[in-house]
Structure formats: structure tokens, C-alpha cells
Prior knowledge:
single chain; Rossmann fold; 2 domains; eight-stranded mixed sheet; 14 strands; globular; binds adenosine-5'-triphosphate; hydrolase activity
Amino acid sequence: xxxxxxxxQKRKNEDDVVVDKKKHKKxxxxxxxxxxxxxxxxxxxxxxxxxxxVDEATEENSTPVSVNSNGSYTQSDDLTNVPQSExxxxxxxxxxxxxxxxxxxxxxxxxxxxxxxxxxIQDEISKFPKPTPIQSVSWPYLLTxxxxxxxxxxxxxxxxxxxxxxxxxxxxANGQLKYKKGIQVLVISPTRELASxxxxxxxxxxxxxGLHCCCVYGGVPKDPQRTQLKVSQVVVATPGRLLDLLQEGxxxxxxxxxxxxxxxxxxxxxxxxxxxxxxxxETASVGRQTLMFTATWPKEVRELASTFMExxxxxxxxxxxELTANKRITQIVEVIDPFKKDRKLLDLLKKYHSGPKKDxxxxxxxxxxxxxxxxxxxxxxxxxxxxxxxxxxxxQQRTQAxxxxxxxxxxxxxxxxxxxxxxxxxxxxxxxxxxFPLTVEDYVHRIGRTGRxxxxxxxxxxxxxxxxxxxxxxxxxxxxxxxxxxEELKKFGTHTKKKEHSAxxxxxxxxxxxxxxxxxxxx
Length: 523
Ligand SMILES: Nc1ncnc2c1ncn2[C@@H]1O[C@H](COP(=O)(O)OP(=O)(O)OP(=O)(O)O)[C@@H](O)[C@H]1O
């Protein structure tokens, strides 16, 4: 693009921003009036029910009562008796930050005995030695009924962090369903595979309590899903199929009062944003508890997130304001000529997937499905048995590939970013990034398929000049995890390029939405 063309393109984008500014203002106004209405309604309903009054307790040891109809949390005596020094050590060791929006600070649970959950849930979860830090810190808030943003590294137990309170809140002290009507918990996931995995985790808990959980995603017949939706209290769904079923009137979300956006930053990106708004509109607007969980929480999505939440508590484990990777993963980055990648991949497989390591699980990421298909053929030609997951395959093929990789029937998986987030595959020893992803956030999620639940792992990344605009971000991640930074990578410059906006591309800039639009003249 010539300099002049670039200027015109920039102006065009600024024009778009101006137009969008007006839309944004209108949206903001609509949201505000909706929020005011909601507040009024809420105040009214709170007057009617004294038990739902917020107790603005401010002391760390105080016992708050419920914030909305979901909550019923009382701090146990055991937890009250823990010396403050132990709590402080826990916060420090796990780099915990709690931004509680000016309300009560609740103590983290240092053991499963520090909280009284439904007995059957407690028994199930006690198979683990103790809560992970994100579970320790977020559960008291979630059991109280608060909106929570939970940000913690990949593989740190976020599914049960939002899942255990979700199911526990559904039943009373005797294990009886509190509210009889319809779907009350909705978890939205970006991919079919992740939705299915989350379902597998939650259904263990709902089965124990005699409740129903179902999973709704595309690429498979709708009829069984329609039937399941009629009897389920808990639903895990991908946005596309859920909207489809909403539009045809097969699902009623008006009783949903516990809503989770898993991989929340992904769900709030352009592309998903409209779907998410349309889904949330259908859920209970009064007293709904809204949760956002993720390992990466870029600034770009935070404002939008706040429009769906009421005074959320933000819980971060590790320094999550900066983009950081799981520190138990050894990260190796090699800068290479793009034409040498195929040869290099075969060398890497010799290193990580042959001899004594031939049964170790290796996950290879390509960027596009065409690339994935080509590399799959190339690996097969070279004698490797490889499973593949990408958008060109049928859902049945995708599910089969993932199952074979999980079970160890096939220990080599080639995937696009459809497998980058959330998938919890046991014992993945190595992640190879054959082509670098589009964002550094995706890099953190991809490599997070190894080193899960306290284990270690290796991520080997091939980086080419084509991705040099992401070099600065990658250097920061490597430095943040005390990993070596290759000299060739530094040569690309360490300045961090702003994340590209999905609509305005590299020309995106944060604009003051209240400033008057400038008149743009072309010379
Ligand atoms: N308290 C616990 N102690 C030990 N392991 C746990 C605990 N809770 C959950 N796990 C296990 O940790 C693994 C990772 O959990 P999970 O998939 O929820 O991670 P995540 O934080 O959601 O990761 P990602 O960011 O990649 O989505 C799972 O195998 C899960 O069973």
C-alpha cells in the first residue's frame, strides 16, 4: 500500500470509528436505562424479601449474607480460626489480587473443609487434595451470589471454580432443588469440544444430585438437544446452536440466574459479541449472577464485560494484568525461514516423539485448516500416525480424533486454534507451534495445553519474519516466565504492537467516546 493509500485507509477507518462512536453512545444510553430499570426492579424485590438484603460487611472476617437469590454462604468457624498470617502467606505465594469493588473481603478457603457444600458435591470434589487458588478465592464470592471475573493460568481448575458453586447453589441444605422451573445455569463455551468437556465435568455433579445437565452445540442433530433442554437445569452451549434453538423457540432462558462466559475474552471478541448480547438478553435480568472466567484478560474486552455485570469482584491469580504464561512450561522459540518449517517439524518429532519418547503425547498447532490438512498428509507420508482437528472435518471426525488422542490410541494430534483454548487432555508433554497464532493471547492458551494441574511441559515454537509484529509481545511473555529470549527474536524489535482490533485492524486506536466527532476533509 502506498503512503497515500495508507492515509486514505486510515481516514476511512477513523470515519468508521466516528460512526461507531454514535452507535456506542446509543448502546451505552440503552444499557444505562435498562440498568436503571433493573436497579429499580431489584430494589423493589429486595424490599419484599429481607433475606436477600446485601450486608455491606467490610471486615475480612465478617460474614455476609446473600447478594441475590443464589447466595447462601457463611464463613466456617474453622476458617475464621485460621491466623491472618496464614491468609497473608496464601495471598502472597499465589500472587492473589482481589478487586472486590468496595464491598466485603472474604477469606480464601485453604481446604475443602473450610466450606460447607452439599455433601455429595463435597465428596466428589474431595478427590482432589485441596482447592486450587482460583477455587479457594472465588468460591466464597460465588456462593454469596456475587458476579465474579476469574482470571487464572491455564490448567488451574477454573471449570470447577465456576462449576461447583453453580450446582451447589441449585439445591437447599437437604439437597432439594430450590427452584423448580427450567434452566437455571447456563455456561457458554467458544468451541464444541470445550462445551462437551465442560459438560463432562458438570454432569458428574448434577448426576449425583439427581439434576439434569445437557450440552448443546452444532454439527450434530438438534432433536435430542431439544428433548434434553426441556428437562435440564444446567446447560453448556456454544453460541451458534443455542441461538438457533432460541430462534425456533425450543429453549427458554428466562430462568437462567447463573450465567458463565467461559474463555470470556474470546466470547467478547467481535464475531461472538453480537451472539452473546442476543443470548444474555434472553436470561433473567433481575438477580442474575454473571461470571467471566479466562486465563487472559486483555484490556480491550473489559469495558464490554462490565456492561453485563453488577459490581463484579475481580479475582486474579498470578500477575494477570500482564499477559503471562504458565511458568511450569519450558518455552523454546526458534526463529526460522518459513520454507524450512516442514523439515524442522520432522526434526522436532524425532526429538519429542521417537525412541523412548515415542509414546509421549505431542500436540502440533497450525494456523489455517488448509495448512493443517497439508501437514497431516505430509506426516502420514513420513510414517506418522496422526489425528487431526480442524474446521474442514465433520463433527464426528473431530470428536473421534480428540478421543483417540485423549485415550492414547494416537499420540500425535494436529490442530488449528479450535483446540487452543480450554481442552484438558491428560499428559500432553509437548506443544509444537508450527505456525504462530494471530495473537499472543492465543499463544498463551495454545501452550497451556501442556503443564496442566501442576505438571510440567514443553512448548516449542517456530517463529518467522511474517509474525514479527508479535515479537514484542512474545518477548514479554518469555521474560515474564523467566524463559530464554533468542537473539534473532530480539532483532525484530521489542516494542509491543497493540492487539489488532477485529473490525479496524492495525488502525484501531482507543478513542474518547465522548469527544465530538472531527470533520474530516480530503485534500
Ligand atoms: N482442586 C483441584 N486439585 C487438583 N486438580 C484439579 C482441581 N480442580 C480441578 N483439577 C483438575 O485440573 C485440570 C485442569 O482444570 P481445568 O480444565 O478446569 O483448567 P482451566 O483453568 O479451565 O484451564 P484452561 O485455562 O486451559 O481452560 C483438570 O484435569 C481438573 O480435573
